[in-house]
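Narrative of activities, Objective 1.

The group set out to show that a structural description can be obtained from nothing but a protein's sequence at a throughput compatible with the screening campaign. Below is one input-output pair from the validation batch, recorded exactly as produced.
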Amino acid sequence: MEPRIAPFAGELLLYAWAMGFEGSVDRARGQCALVFGDLDRAVGLFEAAIALEDGFGAPVLAARTRWWMAKTLLERRASGDRERATDLLTDCEQFTESVGMRLLHQQALDLLAS
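Output recorded for this entry:
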């Protein structure tokens, strides 16, 4: 699947005639890389996705991508990954609580506790 969406890197996934946003294509690419165990690549793609989503002014999308990036960092376990994941999850948890995103809020808390 990832090669099919690679040409759309740096763009947002839209549906219903642009009435809804799924998130950055790079988040989807990062999820594919995570599934296939390419954690370094996944981190880079999630970084690109967060930059796009934050730059677009889409904090809800960026919060979801921060969760995915934190999950990847915790799996990768490189030097500094745990601290960086904690920072991402804390940001995600605080934002999701403030806007009422209950499921993602709980997922961030669960990942912080792990």
